[in-house]
Amino acid sequence: MSNTWILVANASEAHLYSSPKAKLLNGHAKLALLEDFSHPDSRKRPSELVSDRLGRTLHGTTFGRTLHGAYDEPSDPKKVEADHFASQLAECLEHGRVNNEFDELILVAPGHFQSMLKDHASQ
Fold it and tell me: Which H/E stretch holds residue 106?
């Protein structure tokens, strides 16, 4: 009997279901919830994910004045958190694949999050 895993996910939560192909109930597959995942940091506002102010740097002096500049934020904190969550989910899926816990995987997620998951999936 083959087994299908179904991952329904977005950047802040995910639900992993299992459906044995041989078990049909009135023509519909019976789903069993394997695990719920939650990543509350993905729901936070960007201002809650970073420090209060950007860092500063000393550029040197000109005409007796000290020149300062601010560092730019290197990346979007929301995307960083979503990518971190995608990495955790991909690790769970990889564990299931290596241990032959499923034969098929169905992924239901927004396009941008699907690409993050695929970036973390092993080749």
Answer: strand 104-108
Q: In what order do the strands lie in the sheet with 13-20?
A: 32-38, 13-20, 3-9, 104-108
Report d(CA 1, CA 113) in Å as an integer: 31
Which region holds residue 63: left if phi is over 0, alpha if psi is between -120 and 50, else beta? left
pLDDT, tens digit (0-9, with 9 covering 90-100), for 41-72: 666 666 554 555 555 555 555 565 655 555 55
HSE-CB at 89 with a 13 A cutoff on CA atoms is: 34
The span from the CA of 47 to the CA of 51, in Å, is 7
User: From CA 34, how far away is CA 95, in angstroms rounded?
Assistant: 14
Residue whose tokens read 């995910």: 14
Other beta carbons less than 10 A from residue 69's beta carbon: 11
H helices within the chain, ranges in order? 46-49, 77-98, 111-120
pTM exceeds 0.85, yes or no: no
Cross-strand partners of 15: 8, 36
